[in-house]
Amino acid sequence: MRGDHLNNIDLVSSLIKEDSISSIFHPDSSRLSKDLILFYKKSKETKLLEALLECIPEGVEISDESGKILYVNESFEKITGIKKDSRISKNIYEVNPKSILARTLRERKIINDRLTTAPDINREVVANGSPIFFDNKMIGAIILIKDISQIIHLAKKLNQTTHYLNEMYNRNSEHYKFTDIIGGSSSIQNVIQLAKKVAPMDSTVLIEGENGTGKELFAHSIHESSLRIDKPFFRVNCAAIPEHLLESEFFGHEKGSFTGASNKKVGIFELANGGTLFLDEIGDMPILLQSKLLRVLQEGEIRRVGGSKTIKVDVRIITATNRNLKEMVSKGRFREDLYYRINVITIRIPSLKERVEDILELTDFFIRKYNKKFRKMILGIEPKAFEKLSEHSWPGNVRELENVIEYAVLTSDTEILGLEHFAAKIPAKNIANNRTGIIPLVEMERLHIHKALKLYGNTLKGKKQAAQALGISLATLYNKLKNNGIG
Ligand SMILES: Nc1ncnc2c1ncn2[C@@H]1O[C@H](COP(=O)(O)OP(=O)(O)OP(=O)(O)O)[C@@H](O)[C@H]1O
Ligand SMILES: [Mg+2]
């Protein structure tokens, strides 16, 4: 009798030592089983154990060997949303034959860390089950359930925040220079000349252009040609800033300035001090932050959230957008005063459609790039395939072209890329002017010249042959090449 009593006290104290899951599934299962039998039979100790089981945060459910449920604690009810009354005295094989308790009984072995969802309340739980043996005979089973929905919720939040931060600060971005911008067309060359001219000045630059036209490339190149070359270049994707991170990410905060601000934080303006801050997708900046940004641009100083002193900052601002900011201003979605402030110098990058003549050079460039990456030896592109590239409308501009070439290089097992290598990425319906089938004459001429040069080669001999095939003199060919910015 006294020994039994001591056994129960042992069990209670081992349970109290927390880490309750592992202590209940004590390897010495015969001791555990003995205690559990006492738990059902002896009233005083039973009460003590029951009180303990009612206190622990894990849900507990115990059945006998036939599956009849003997005990369910308070936490089980809370975690699973299943009422005690709907379980006690019922058979687990009937109420939930797929449950961990039923499986533990069926398989007569410990089931550890099974992640499941409590069906009634859609909450993530971890369940552990263990059979109970007495004199080598299974007399029942016990399961413990832990609510981990909070942990999962926090993990998801953390993931999301990390994603935002990575998106916001393009930390691993490469250092592009003007020489990395490919394209001999006069339209892109004019833009490069303008950007080179403004690079050494400290003025604010607004870069406009459709998706994938190379706005980031230009922003980098401007910084790399500026006097700030040795200072930091920071890119912030304004579209990726969640409202609640916004102000403190930009301006920093003092310790304790709001719930969760357990440490002082230096904002992006301070980090970029002396260097360049590239505000990408400025058109997506929330209006509240627009006014704060305007103040910084006007006053050249910031104040941390919760701070009282102002900090002088010297940051060159480059902004980029694929939206029509002017139109946004007229609709009241972008502050007019900020628009004028950032729009001191505007660089508009032409879309790829506007400079079809660059496609050949870009194609060659990307073939070389992906040859290196994938260890391939692609030599070039068939005239028919090139024609297809020239006719495509390129809504995704240079990025789309790069993806198309990457895919073609990767999938090709011939030395020359043919039509078949582009069929998957460029569906026929995206061909420009396909409704009328009419291509502007200038573009036709450009295409034809390309085709001839591709066929005969870009050497003097090739050009002579090309001119002959096109029925023009060599001088006229040179003129046309110059005018089209191909030569
Ligand atoms: N003229 C160019 N020469 C070489 N590569 C280019 C050129 N223009 C763009 N690219 C390449 O195309 C891709 C897209 O460029 P980038 O990210 O600068 O475009 P973006 O205008 O900022 O696009 P988005 O509007 O989608 O942000 C990059 O891989 C870049 O290296
Ligand atoms: Mg960009």
Automatic annotation (TrEMBL):
GO molecular function list: ATP binding; sequence-specific DNA binding
Name of a matching Pfam family: AAA_lid_14
Organism name: Cytobacillus depressus
Residue stretches making up the Sigma-54 factor interaction domain: 181-410
Domain PAS: residue ranges: 45-95
Transmembrane parts of this sequence: none
Keywords assigned by UniProt, alphabetized: ATP-binding, DNA-binding, Nucleotide-binding, Transcription, Transcription regulation
Segment forming the signal sequence: none
InterPro entries per UniProt: AAA+_ATPase, AAA_lid_NorR, Homeodomain-like_sf, HTH_Fis, P-loop_NTPase, PAS, PAS-like_dom_sf, PAS_fold
The name this protein goes by in its record: PAS domain-containing protein
SUPFAM superfamilies, per database record: Homeodomain-like, P-loop containing nucleoside triphosphate hydrolases, PYP-like sensor domain (PAS domain)
Xref: Gene3D superfamilies: 1.10.8.60, Homeodomain-like (1.10.10.60), P-loop containing nucleotide triphosphate hydrolases (3.40.50.300), PAS domain (3.30.450.20)
Swiss-Prot/TrEMBL GO biological process terms: regulation of DNA-templated transcription
